[in-house]
Amino acid sequence: MCAYLKNTITASAFGKDFLWGVAMAAQQNEGAWNVDGRGPSIWDVFARRQGKIKEGGKPTHACDFYYRYKDDLLLTKALGFSVFRFSISWSRVLPEGMGRTNKEGLAFYHKVIDECIQLGLTPYITLYHWDLPQALEKEGGWTNHNIIKWFARFVTVCAEEYGDKVKNWIVMNEPAGFTSLGYMLGKHAPGKTGLANFLPAIHHTVMATAEGGRVLRALVPNAHIGTTFSCSEIIPFTDTEEDKQAAKRVDILANRLFIEPALGRGYPRDDFKFMEKLEMHNHAWKYTERMHFNFDFIGLQNYFPVVVKYNALMPIIQASEVKAVTRKVPHTAMGWEINADSFYRIIKRFWLYGNVKEIFITESGAAFKDKLQNGVVNDAERINYHQQYLQALLKAKHEGMNVKGYFAWTLMDNFEWAEGYKTRFGLIHVDFNTQLRTIKNSGYWFRDFLQHS
Ligand code: BGC
User: Fold this and answer.
1) How far apart are CA 93 and CA 127, in angstroms?
2) Which InterPro entries match (predicted)?
3) Does the annotation flag 20 for ligand binding?
4) What is the DSSP letter of 254?
5) Residue 150, annotated ligand binder?
6) Any ligand 1 atom below 6 A from CB of 416
């Protein structure tokens, strides 16, 4: 049962300046995929392919945020949050990814930003949350070197358009996620596989992230610039040398690959053939300087630790995961282990890089099999989850790690990528037939919790 249901922490313990927010992303929430001049994204196209999304879910309408943003922002405010993190759909503002801008698309984000400001919500803009314009994918997407230039133009358009109103910017959302799932494993859009796609996609993403930071710095006075990384503690299944080495390899890909070049260290140079290939393919040694950007903050997004064992049959990585279900440990509806101690340890690990100035938890949340009954969603497990994770975060803060904010993933149930609509992460329940919103008990829990922030 839920050991933490009794409130064990208070928001005020995090201090007056600590920021409490919700996070969401354009493709997962907006819908309105083909209105007012928006161009298609890779997800619009990918979702039409047979068998790619569970139960054939499509992001065409999602939560209809495009038309309901006022209500949804009001709900965010009503739950007591003070930060709203959202992303800009690249193909809504630049329908072909480059070239001409779309006035109506640009106007939409002005309306969202203005509404936030009016309600007293601080907007945090994510520039890239996985929805590449399909027009650019036709040119090779993240595998094409020109994407650095295309991305810089997108950032320029957004910075010039919104930079006087918005000071908080997140360049990239979880690069390890979209490059591996979309360009190696084929499970996410655009559905590409193999090293020939993965190696250039990694490098161009690293380069574009730093470039995006530089564009923002040049164009937005007093900007507070960050970028997010997914992170997972990687734990060897046994004490054997083979399992330990397997964990080391997975750790490079899961945790080190993107942050180390951003911090100016270049790619991890450990004894791992994959890294040699990455360097060689991209002549990466030439770019150490350009891969570096002095971010004001990093966003960490931790959903689970990963236990791995040596597996000779797995190409390149020679490791496989021992799932939480197999290990019979507490896990979410995604099968992701719930482990707040591991959350604490991974934050500490990133903090110990030394030149990280501020950390934000830019996403934290969990999916459970929520049931709406008589207008109530009693999601005690989600409340318990947030309580445990916040407790761990507080410990990190007390030990001097400069953690400045916690953004719940996510405001409302939405299009959960390849999982479609069945997997619910929201603090607010959405009926996707009627678009009716129902605040879950976890939403009310946050409201009560934040009253004392
Ligand atoms: C992504 C979100 C996603 C969440 C849960 C994160 O990796 O940034 O878009 O919905 O995980 O899967």
Assistant:
1) 11
2) GH, Glyco_hydro_1, Glyco_hydro_1_beta-glucosidase
3) no
4) I
5) no
6) yes
Integer Rg of the chain from CA: 21
Q: Residues 389-429: pLDDT tens digits? A: 999 999 999 999 999 999 999 999 999 999 999 999 999 99
Residue of 22, 4, 229 lying closest to 123 (CA atoms):
22
- Using a 10 angstrom Cβ sphere, with 0-12 exposed, 13-18 middle and 19 or more buried, the burial of residue 95 is buried
Chain segment 329-373, per-residue pLDDT in tens:
999 999 999 999 999 999 999 999 999 999 999 999 999 999 999
254 CB near ligand 1 (under 6 Å): no
What is the domain class of 11-450 according to CATH?
A: alpha beta
Cβ of 26 closer than 6 Å to ligand 1, yes or no, is no
Assess contact for 117 and 174: CB atoms under 8 A: no
Which stretches of 362-405 are DSSP H helices? 380-398
What CA–CA distance (Å, rounded) separates 260 from 414?
32
Token duo for residue 48: 């039409």
User: Whole-angstrom distance between the N-terminal and C-terminal Cα of the chain?
Assistant: 28
- Residue 375 burial (C-beta neighbours within 10 Å; 0-12, 13-18, 19+): exposed
pLDDT at 59: 98
Atom of ligand 1 minimally distant from the CA of 416? 10
Instruction: Name residue, tokens 């739950």.
Output: 79
Q: Is 123 helix (H, G, I), strand (E, B) or coil?
A: strand
Asked if residue 25 has its Cβ within 6 Å of ligand 1, the reply is: yes
pLDDT at position 3 over 50? no
Per-residue buried b or exposed e for 392-415, using 16+ beta carbons within 10 Å of the residue's own CB? bbbbbbeeebebbbbbbbbbbbbb
Name the residue type at position 228: T
Q: To the nearest whole percent, how much of the chain has pLDDT over 70?
A: 98
In sequence order, which ranges of 127-230 are alpha helices (DSSP H)?
A: 134-137, 147-162, 175-183, 195-219
**CA 239–ligand 1 middle distance (angstroms):** 31
Q: Has 28 been labeled as part of a binding site?
A: yes
Catalytic residues: 174, 363
Residue with the smallest CA separation from ligand 1 atom 9 is 25
Tell me, what's the pLDDT at 1?
A: 34
| Residue type (1 letter), 120 | G
